[in-house]
Amino acid sequence: MILGITGGTGCGKTTLLNCIAEQGGLILDCDAIYHELLNNDPALLGAIEARFPGTMENGILQRKKLGNRVFSDEKALKDLNKITHGAVKAEVLRRLAGKPKFAAIDAIALFEGGLAELCDVTVAVTAPEEDRIQRLMVRDGIDRDYAKRRIDAQKSADWFREMCDYSLVNDGTRAQFRDTCLAFLQRLAIIEEKTKGETL
Hints:
Blueprint (H helix, E strand, L loop, with lengths): L1 E5 L6 H10 L3 E4 H11 L1 H10 L4 E2 L2 E2 L1 H8 L3 H23 L6 E4 L14 E6 L2 H12 L3 H9 L4 H7 L2 E4 L4 H14 L13
Parallel strand pairs: 1-5, 1-6, 2-5, 6-7
Antiparallel strand pairs: 3-4
């Protein structure tokens, strides 16, 4: 089974991914794959620099500089996504070539990037906006305004819910959401339901 996971940044998709990894699933984190490609794919870097001059310094992409260019410009963001989606999908297909028994593709652009068509089941992970802002500020060391602009540049929670087969809401503690994720994986028969009295 290939499970597609999507949702806005800061929603807590990592918790679900960790649960899947614990069950031996192959994790395909498209954000991580994208960053790996930025380090070893000269063609991708060249395409980004050609469209967004000045965002490369000494062969290294300046992410915050690029972010400032695209998060407030819808056309620029579409152009960046067009450049990156093809490269990421090609790498995902390469990693799936070994035909793992169970894999999870984590991608904010699961549908736009053509990755949903590779999945048997899709799930949206959503969370209240304020929770997301606080998580981004802590996780990425950015200020509130930059965190909010990143969120505002993405699809709404309603959009993700409507597009996916299932949705999980992360509006409590990390432990509570972990329990939600484990119950969801049991529902999909990815992990066996625990017997009465056995802790997860």
